[in-house]
Design brief:
Elements: H1 6-14, E1 16-21, H2 32-39, E2 43-46, H3 52-55, E3 63-66, H4 75-90, E4 94-99, H5 109-119, E5 123-126, H6 131-138, E6 152-156, H7 170-175, E7 179-183, H8 189-198, E8 206-211, E9 219-224, H9 228-234, E10 241-245, H10 252-255, E11 267-270, H11 274-286, E12 290-293, E13 297-300, H12 306-313, E14 320-323, H13 326-338, E15 350-353, H14 356-363, H15 378-384, E16 394-400, H16 406-413, E17 417-428, H17 432-440, E18 446-449, H18 452-462, H19 466-471, E19 474-477, H20 480-488, E20 495-496, H21 502-527
Parallel strand pairs: 1-4, 1-5, 2-3, 2-4, 6-7, 11-12, 11-18, 14-15, 14-16, 16-17, 18-19, 19-20
Antiparallel strand pairs: 7-10, 8-9, 8-10, 13-17
Helix pairs in contact: 4-5, 13-14, 15-16, 17-18, 18-20
The protein binds S-adenosyl-L-homocysteine.
């Protein structure tokens, strides 16, 4: 490309620095431009408050440097950071300086930009969602409101408000009625409250302090200027925290949403395969839970493809194919393809699926099922297939090697000729050490099981510790078969899905927690 200016040529040799705002904590609050910059980075220099998932957006070969600064304002650190920015850019690299919140809000981004400008390094600024506004928002506090506050001030609480020469005009803030948002102020909260009261804010002015806002660890303490320091001390809040002062804090009572989601902050163990975890993880996260993946099973091709291949070679002889899992669909069609065939080989065969997820997997091949029972277990298929005349009908069951006999036997009892072929098998996926560490470090609140094998495998992984460890968590099962396996293994099952599907499981967990919450409140009422 012809270059029209010397500057553009210098750019291509020089590399470039992107001062990117990483947002306040929730990785979903990174901007689209910020994501693009990370995806193209050669070097990423990041601060302490950056969520690790943002770093995974950078290419694996990118150099990631921890800048380690937070409220630590030692000049040398900043100088070192500036030097790294300049030197890496001079090597021709695309350098992302990833900062918490917005780079230019109390984050010394301005100084970094000055250093780059002075060194003649081209740079771009990618603004971010600042914690000053987003953290109150996630606590249900709008920083302005038509009736309550028409302006807000964001100030640093890092400097001692009692000292004679301060950069923050506490006197003016005390006199005004605007919202005050203080970052880095937890350590000086008592003095800040005192200064504001001394300069005219009523001691009854509402205050909220929000720790680790926009993350599943978010905690909020609400009080008034006169008592907030004591309340925060009793609740043992720690930085990072945003302090919000003003009448708008009262809105939280009605507008809290993030921390009122049904599963907020609950650590939920997902034991199904890594490929299948994501749907459940997403549904849980949407309700505020922290999904923790510990795949207990892994799916593998069967040891012997012989029976499946023979069935595939004779597909035209079958009247029905019944799929009992998404994995069954996945492996069957993979094998069909490997044998040089496609869906046309299924022409004329009727299809059944055990439930909507399996039917969905077939729909991905543009195949519509002729039957799907209303309860998603093998017994229900046998029952429901009763509406068809199965005498002398040939039925193919592509399934896991270790599947239950109920289905094949039940269908055979109705006169069908059933061929069961293994299209996959399951094996263990995690180590006992990994499993034990999860239960010990920070713990698990709820363990989910989506099949009998997930229960068996987790119990096997935990060994002797299985029953004691699982007795202190809520055990949630997708349906009666899985629940029975869990009980047979000595576990207490508190939650069993009415609808035996992933959304059904999540709904059951949500309901169970709501019921428990209700019971606790009833208990509190009857005590008072
Ligand atoms: N540039 C950043 C602020 C940097 S100063 C921004 O725009 O958000 C660091 C301070 O920001 C912390 O001490 C804390 O007061 C606040 N902060 C940042 N992330 C926070 C979070 N997730 N929860 C609460 N406070 C946070």
């Amino acid at each position: 490309m012809p270059s029209s200016s010397g500057c553009a040529m210098a750019d291509s040799r020089l590399g470039r620095v992107f001062l990117v705002g990483g947002g306040p904590g929730d990785p979903g609050l990174l901007t689209v431009r910020g994501k693009e910059c990370l995806e193209q980075a050669d070097v990423v220099i990041y601060d302490r408050l950056i969520d690790p998932s943002l770093l995974r957006l950078a290419p694996p070969e990118a150099e990631c440097i921890f800048a380690g600064k937070e409220s630590d304002h030692r000049l040398l650190d900043q100088e070192e950071i500036n030097q790294i920015l300049v030197s890496r850019a001079r090597e021709g690299k695309r350098v992302v300086r990833l900062k918490g919140g917005d780079p230019f809000v109390l984050g010394r981004g301005g100084e970094e930009a000055e250093a780059l400008a002075a060194a003649g390094i081209p740079f771009e600024v990618v603004p971010g969602v600042t914690s000053a506004i987003a953290v109150p928002a996630y606590a249900g506090i709008p920083v302005t409101h038509r009736d309550l506050a028409s302006a807000f001030t964001v100030v640093t609480g890092h400097e001692d408000p009692g000292k004679l020469q301060t950069l923050v005009d506490w006197e003016r803030l005390g006199r005004s009625r605007d919202t005050i948002i203080i970052l880095m102020g937890l350590g000086n909260l008592g003095q800040i409250a005192e200064q504001l009261i001394r300069h005219g804010r009523p001691p009854t002015t509402p205050v909220a302090v929000i720790e680790r806002g926009t993350t599943p660890a978010q905690r909020t303490v609400v009080g008034v200027l006169a008592d907030i320091e004591t309340r925060v001390r009793l609740a043992r809040l720690r930085p990072p925290a945003v302090i919000v002062i003003g009448e708008i804090v009262r809105l939280r009572e009605r507008l809290a949403w993030y921390d009122r989601r049904p599963l907020f902050g609950k650590r939920v163990l997902i034991t199904r395969t890594r490929e299948q975890a994501s749907v459940l993880a997403a549904l849980l996260a949407e309700r505020g839970a922290i999904p923790i993946e510990l795949p207990t099973i892994r799916t593998l091709p069967p040891d012997d493809w012989g029976p499946c291949d023979r069935a595939i070679a004779a597909l035209d002889q079958y009247d029905w194919i019944i799929f009992t899992s998404v994995n069954g669909v996945r492996f069957f069609f993979q094998r069909l393809e490997e044998r040089g065939l496609d869906v046309r080989a299924l022409k004329g065969i009727r299809l059944a699926a055990i439930g909507p997820a399996t039917a969905g997997a077939l729909a991905a091949y543009r195949l519509r099922v002729d039957f799907c029972p209303s309860e998603y277990i093998a017994e229900a298929i046998v029952e429901g297939m009763g509406q068809f005349d199965l005498r002398g009908r040939r039925i193919l069951l592509p399934r896991a090697r270790e599947a239950r006999e109920v289905l094949a036997e039940g269908l055979a009892a109705r006169g069908a000729l059933v061929d069961e072929v293994a299209v996959y098998q399951t094996g263990p996926a995690s180590t006992p050490e990994e499993a034990l560490a999860l239960f010990e470090n920070g713990g698990i609140d709820i363990a989910t099981f989506t099949s009998s094998s997930t229960v068996r495998n987790l119990v096997a992984l935990l060994g002797d510790r299985a029953r004691p460890l699982l007795s202190s968590v809520l055990v949630a099962c997708i349906g009666p078969i899985t629940a029975r396996t869990a009980r047979d293994l000595g576990l207490t099952v508190q939650i069993e899905a009415q609808e035996h599907s992933i959304p059904g499981l999540v709904a059951a967990i949500e309901q169970a927690l709501a019921d428990r919450q209700g019971e606790q409140e009833d208990g509190a009422l009857s005590r008072s």
